[in-house]
Amino acid sequence: MPLVPIKLPPGVYRNGTEYQAAGRWYDANLVRWFEGTLRPMGGWLQWSSATVSGVPRGMFAWRDNSTNVWLAVGSASKLYAYQGDGDQADITPTSFSAGRTDATGGTGYGNGDYGEQAWGTARLNLAATGILPATTWSMDNWGQYLVACSDYDGKLYEWQLDFVTPTKAVAITNAPTGCKGLIVSEERFLFALGAGGDPRKVQWSDQEDNTVWTPAANNQAGDFTLSTPGSIICARRVRGGVLILTDVDAHFAQYQGPPYVYGFERVGTGCGAVSAIGIAAADTFAAWMGQSGFWIFDGYTKPLPSDVSDYVFNNINRGQISKVAAVHNSKFSEIWWFYPSSANTENDSYVIWNYRENHWTIGSLVRTSGTGQGVFSVPLMAASDGKIYQHETGWTYTGSTTPYAESGPYQIGMGDNLLVADELIPDESTLGDVTATFKTRLYPTGSETTYGPYSLANPTSIRLQGRQLKVRVTSNNNTDWRVGIFRFNAKAGSRR
Predict the structure, then answer these.
(1) Closest CA relative to residue 356, chosen from 376, 328, 326, 392
(2) CATH 2.60.120 domain span(s) along the chain
(3) Is-above-0.90 flag for pTM?
(4) Domain 44-171+273-391 is in which class?
(5) Per-residue pLDDT tens digits for 157-170
(6) Which residue in 19, 59, 239, 342 has a CA-CA distance of 20 to 30 Å to 105?
(7) Is 203 in a helix, a strand, or coil?
(8) Better-scored residue on pLDDT, 284 or 328
(9) Dihedral angle computed from the Cα positions of residues 353, 357, 358 and 361, in that order, rounded to the nearest 10 degrees
């Protein structure tokens, strides 16, 4: 029989039916495709023995003027600072108002007017105000100091690195309250988002002085109310200015100098963000999750086509979508989004976009916020139990499943004939690092027959037949394996 190669392009395709994924990878967990090769993701280890009280929903890393590294982590009720060795200090402001661990409202008995919708079903409030989002933090550095804002508490705080005492973060003098977040511009203005409780208002301090907020002839403080029907969610620095996202559209703020200081332009509609921490910025773009798709801003706001969007947005808990967290993993040119699946209230799943090679993958992992490598040599991510992990470290996957990838169906020609195979020629960097399992069907929705798993050898003896064949490779060793192109000794059988 001739050798038939199973050559699949990188990335997972999970839109529509399983049969539509013919000739593609269909399912995966804890694996990536990088430079055209299937390999495992790096593992993780707990970074600090100190844990966060509450669920972490905001993380920021920076260096001080002496090049020491720092990490800030916030939950609904606490704000912490960590030194580079993992030591923790509670810097929660004394006047801080604790927020919500979970989003509330939106569905359930009593939501909506009497007599609306069918009796005995949960009420769905389509108004954005029907759901009160989970509390998140926005953080940045003002020089070597930390500035932070909880979208529930609404105050702008600063912490000046006193770790020994330790001192608490304190409210910034004269800063507006009722804010939804903050960001520091490249020109060293501190932006308050949703300032004064106005969901459309952006207010900024004087340049280099975050205690001066009242405009005057001798300063550059100011404010601007966005022309939008939505409410400000978050902002990120991008090339040339600040990208500001509401729940319905996108705006771009660019420095112009006195007298107006900043100019504002709406740069996208129907592209609102679902979460304040669900956006990540790279060198030349920012990407975020919207209500039904992904978006990118690279000077223009555009939909980001995804091979897995159908799967993700049909598998997400929309009542808890405000918990979506994005992390930029620059080493592998990836943007990660963690989200709560439909069966859970906490982030337990992820979707990843490789922006250099433009492919996607999916999987399961409990992470609620994180920061990419840069200040730290590896990404740091937090779990819902308050533990912080360093990622891309070794090949141990604590508390998770074994890495695997499973293809969509493969067939001979148009699938008229059975595929009969009796031998496999594996392609691995080190033979035996993975096992192989095969699944066959006669029809796209027919019953499935499983063969294996097989420990691989050169060659590997197998016996299987079916109109459609799927292959699943599973990690067999905690090592940095590679899988290339498997070949089958196969032929076309009958047209049964």
Answers:
(1) 328
(2) 3-41+405-492
(3) yes
(4) mainly beta
(5) 999 999 888 899 99
(6) 59
(7) strand
(8) 328
(9) -40
